[in-house]
Amino acid sequence: xxxxxxxxxxxxxxxFLMFAINFIIWVSSIVILVLGIWTVADRPYLERLLGSxxxxxxxxxxIGTGCVTFFVSFLGCFGALREVKCMLLTYFIVVLLLFxxxxxxGILGYVFKDKARINMNHAMLNAMKEYKIDSDSxxxxxxxxxQQAMKCCAIAHQEEWPTNNKEFSxxxxxxxxxxxxxxxTSGEMLDCxxxxxxxxxxxxxxxxxxxxxxxxxxxxxxxxxxxxxxxTVLGLVLSIVLFKMIx
Length: 247
Fold this sequence. Notes:
Elements: H1 10-41, H2 46-49, H3 54-82, H4 85-111, H5 113-129, H6 138-150, H7 160-164, H8 166-169, H9 187-194, H10 206-245
Helix pairs in contact: 1-3, 1-10, 3-4, 4-10
């Protein structure tokens, strides 16, 4: 279908509003892309430690959604300016599908939230058992990076290291180097590993900090997602109104 006749009054207002909303959606898609890239770049070591690809998968979904929304919003802007009915109809269908997918994803994320916490705890426990002293294994690297970056130690408390890891239970060491506050190879570091205290080591568990980190990310993403969803609904309504106004 081609371009409709020239609009006046209410029709021009709807067309302008349609363009404005899609411009906001276009800007929002850039924000979603930035959030996705930020999630991938920030704390990537948590993926292995948490024993799930859910964290990084969510980030990739954000990036994919941002890319699709970027081009779809452009389609809506162009369709509104040029009054092209086929573009408006295509825009409506694609945006409706995106909205349904995001809605289902949000519901599933809320439903499985508690189950995810339990799985994360089990995954961290299994990763702790695989930790190797003075090794570059993936689990060792994940734990060391997490404990240093988040200033934490073990899952809930330091005593878990000799309890859940054979290497620590069979040695004079009670915690890894990454639990110590001073990152050096001096006698103080060795003393920290043998006799960790509040003064020379991190005593807060990593599980609560990891949960807080993931939930804070989820909150930011959720707020942006809800805002974009509300704007998207307005775009859907306006696209239908404008579609019917075009002869």
